[in-house]
Specification:
By secondary structure, this protein is mostly beta strands. It is built from no helices and 11 strands. The strands form 3 sheets. Strands 5, 6, 8, 9, 10 and 11 form a 6-stranded antiparallel sheet that branches.
Length: 142
């Protein structure tokens, strides 16, 4: 409450959002892998971060690098109950690499799930090309 002489009283409400001191950052997601590729698209999936009451996952942060670059850029935030992402509008034949981090109110996971090798966006049906060979695994987020 603020008092203004001659004008009366005004109420001021201030809301401050702080990190939750009772929460811990989540663990890292694991086993990031490619589900498939298509022209201009790469579909990714990962195993969820282990979460507890003190370290729930709010979102997964997907980062991508192109070619042989090592600088990763955030390309998406995926709901913490989803363990899949489709990277779209990619250049056909280009190499891409991905990282996925878990995030909650206490911050990011210490590490990130990452692909073993870069992947090339290309239309080759249900199979897919990972530099160095074929690679296939599937995990549910539930």
């Amino acid at each position: 409450m603020i008092c203004f002489p001659g004008l009366g009283i005004a109420f001021l409400e201030l809301i401050v959002v702080l990190p939750n001191p009772c929460a811990d950052p989540p663990s890292s997601p694991e086993n990031l892998h490619v589900l498939g590729t298509d022209t201009g698209q790469i579909s990714l999936q990962w195993q969820p971060a282990k979460s507890t009451e003190k370290s729930p996952v709010d979102v997964y942060v997907v980062e991508m690098a192109t070619g042989d670059r090592k600088d990763f850029v955030e390309v998406a935030r995926v709901d913490g109950k989803t363990c899949r992402f489709d990277a779209t509008d990619l250049q056909d034949g280009q190499k891409y690499n991905f990282h996925v981090k878990a995030r909650n109110s206490a911050g990011n996971s210490d590490g990130s799930a990452q692909l073993d090798k870069p992947v090339i966006a290309s239309k080759i049906g249900k199979a897919f090309s990972v530099l160095g060979g074929l690679y296939s695994r599937a995990f549910s987020c539930e």
